[in-house]
Amino acid sequence: MKINLNVRCCLILIILFGAGWTAQAQQIRDTFRQVKPSVVEVRTLQKTVAPYPQEGSALQVGLGSGVLISDDGQVLTAAHVVQSADLIFVAFPDGNPIPARVTNSAVYADVALLQLERVPQGAVAAKLGDSNRVEVGDEILVVGAPYGLSHTLSIGHISGRYRPSNWVEGTSAIEFLQTDAAINSGNSGGPVFNLSGEVVGIVSKIVTKSGGFEGIGFAATSCMARHLLLDQKMFWSGLEGMLIEGDLARALNLPQAAGFLVQRVAKGSPAWREGIRAGALRAQIEGEDLLLGGDIILEVNGIAVQEGNRTFDQIYAAMSELKAGEKLTSKVLRDGKVIELSTTIIR
Asked: Does residue 188 carry a catalytic annotation?
């Protein structure tokens, strides 16, 4: 039986492409098996204000992901997952929770470093890769716990690189990798791997109108995380809040142009030891849910909170330079009065 030339060429192409797809699928499978032992769930507990005033306080349960990056128990995750958590537990593939604490955090870059109370037997640390070598179009793997589904794999590509307008004091710009890999609730803080199994990003957020994944996600770059958390060791305050300025600042009778409205404070954190109060009353202003009634920070160690985000770079840089035994002082607006709070730094 004779096969014409066109059919023969098509068969050859199908065989070649089929072999290529099989090899690629095998590489992804092997990479996933390699990195899976380093990926963790990050579970948090946090005391917060109940939805209705008559209910008082409530216990909020949080879920995120993370990745073990050292044999002595350092875990990278997203700052928004753990920033104001009262209790943090990390779960490896065996499911057993291990207590953890925040050691360093850069809120504006959305990266944080946890220290485990102990490292389970068989845990494998992932290698922190060079995100500067990542290019648009590169294939990547995201591993995490979307909706609590532990060690779920999603595959995609680097869609772009994004640099916000705010800058980190004395460093290169804050930078995020954009990806089309599926990211959902519970993926936050999880690792983005290249095909060699190196961590090149930490999942941060998605852009969505529906509330679910719509093809645009962002991850903090590994180089930025390394610089801020391992080289510089950015200060963890335990505070969660927002900058208020303009009409809102005037409505809250601030004695200056801007302040930091405290929303939540992690138990045992430097802010908690300082005596800073969290918000206690739920409100909605211009469509945004807020907690009012807490302290409004006006100044930290002599640096006044100003309009725009650049002030936070200066404040975080100053706090990160504090050594054990030195004082952290804050001026806050509380019940219409400016008071000063302080605590001693414990490292």
From this structure: yes
